[in-house]
Amino acid sequence: MAARVAAEAGGGDALPLLDDLMPWSVRPLRPGRPWVTAPDAASLRARWDLLVGAEGAEQERLFRPSRSRTPLTPAVALPGRSTGTSAFARDPGPYPEPVRISHGPFDEQWLIPDHRLLDAARPELWRVADGHQIFAVEHGYVPRDSGPALYATALLPDGYSPAGRPGRIRPLHRRPGARDPNLTPGLAAELTARYGAPVTAESVLAWALAAARPSPAGPLVPLPADAALWAEGLELGRELLRLQLRGAHGGERPRLPGGRRPYVRAALPPRPAGPRYEADEETLFIGEGRISPVPAGAWDFRVSGVRVLELWFERRTADAAAAGGPGAEGLTAEGLAAVGPRGWPQERTSELLELITVLALLSGLLPRQQALRDRLDEADLLTREALHTAGVLPAPAWARRPASVLDHQEEGPEGQFALL
Fold first, then answer.
1. Does the residue 37 lie in any domain?
2. Contact 222/21 with Cβ under 8 angstroms?
3. Start-end of H helices in 221-305
4. Domain range for residue 119?
5. Residue 304 in contact with residue 142, Cβ under 8 Å?
6. Domain count, the chain
7. Long-range pairs for 193-198: beta carbons < 8 A, 24 or more residues apart
8. 100 lies in some domain
9. Does the residue 247 lie in any domain?
10. pTM given for the model
11. Whose CB among 90, 110, 250, 323 lies 3.0–4.6 Å from 340's, allowing a Cys bridge?
12. What is the spatial distance between Cα 387 and Cα 189, in angstroms, rounded to a whole number?
């Protein structure tokens, strides 16, 4: 009963938090202006060109200045990026190639990686983002929500939360090249001794994906005393991790078995309206377009109480409704965010089919997750007190700070090198 009581009480002191196990975390990115991200990269280039071509008050209006950033604000280049560092109005520099990011759970978008355009880009995340990194992203807490507490992505996440206060971003590794695991010192050794099998940072993340529960203090992570239960949950967690990484790090892209793969049965219109789902037919209607089969679990998959597919469509249909095309004249009060494709790009349909596949496979694992939760409710668990007694907790202060990963100079404002 310990796990149930602790979860309902909002955390308490009984069960460890993800914050206890993976102590280094970073707050979500704060772009400060909506036009720096988009579902397609071409829109970002069009917005950049319009901003560069504008002058004076018109450029300032399109830029959408904030206290942190204006067209006259210089800024350091983001780690690993060669962009202008002088004030944008004086010298915008060449267009920086956009990067693929995770815009909240299960939504992949594009971002202009120019620090002068971003209020708070979190450079410490950019320093450790490489082909080996995995990010654990906490969902915002919503009372009485029984959905997932976090998700994992190989893309740089912005930490956006569909509802509730955004959670923290926790890199799996503190240094590039999969070095220096973001685990509380001594935790891996303690769990390895208890379970009789090697425990790594990826093991802890996989377990958290399977077993963590939302709470106001952050995800609660019940750790079983029983090695067999740990192994069972770890197998489930690794499957969840594989699906959420979507083929990153050499894995296979998620696929449904033959006969259950979603297909476009009627072409989606150039400006599709919001989706409508028919459970009896397992069909998703998008205007005159039809996609099937779409399992009910994929359609109803929710994060923080918000249906993922509806939110995905809402972002893209709103853009399409306001879009004026790459050469839009007379931009509305929405400014650059209104610049986008005139129709529905073909690649967007492919992304939708993959999202349906991922959500269908994840929903198919929900019964196993619930069964694991039920078993943990009755199991003996490792409490925070037990981890204190073992000398694992509390995490030392240095483990909560970024590691020193700077083996090169980073360009500062106005072309000067940053003092490190």
1. yes
2. no
3. 227-245, 296-299
4. 2-254+369-415
5. yes
6. 1
7. 194/225, 194/227, 194/382, 195/227, 195/230, 195/231, 196/227, 197/227, 197/231
8. yes
9. yes
10. 0.91
11. 323
12. 12
